[in-house]
User: What shape does this take?
Amino acid sequence: MTPSPEHQQGEAWYSPDIDRVILSADDITSKTAEIAKRIDADYADVGGLLMVGLFKGAIMFMADLARAVNIPVEMEFMALSSYGQRATSSGVVRVLKDLDTDIRDRHVLVVEDIVDSGLTLSWLLKYLPSRGPKSVQVASMLRKPKALESSLDVKYVGFDVPDEFVVGYGLDYAERYRELPFVGVLKPSVYGG
Assistant: This one.
């Protein structure tokens, strides 16, 4: 396949798919630093924090957040899915990868890329306490309007975003766009919306 003339002249590969950028890399960096300061204050006297990233989407935010805090941090990952290759949640949470670390008597911070319907996070917040942590809190870079309707307690929220399909900074559609340094709205023509 031959690239279009625009792409040959330096247009980024993703440009035709992105409707608009809603959060720049600078916006994200500033907000991450702000959240890190709050976490530092809240966990200053606990001796450390176990960040549990909901893989793969949370990896960008979790890596940046772990570097931004000034307290000891350990990192662990879980892979949960309610989306698969779809643009909307299937309504069923599947554990694709469970924790490898014992969280008993640990302060746990679940790190999310986005809270959308809240289904996955709601399930996780019922599951993790059964493993005996001292505390479980949530940090999410993004939150959609539906999440505000739920009773979920997300202690650290970066940005509230519109109810549109967003990609970048860890968020994907069919495993594409995660590496983009910004958050943008994906054109409906790309995902059939």
Q: What stands out?
A: Helices lie at 5-8, 25-42, 59-68, 119-127, 145-149, 188-191. The longest helix spans residues 25-42.
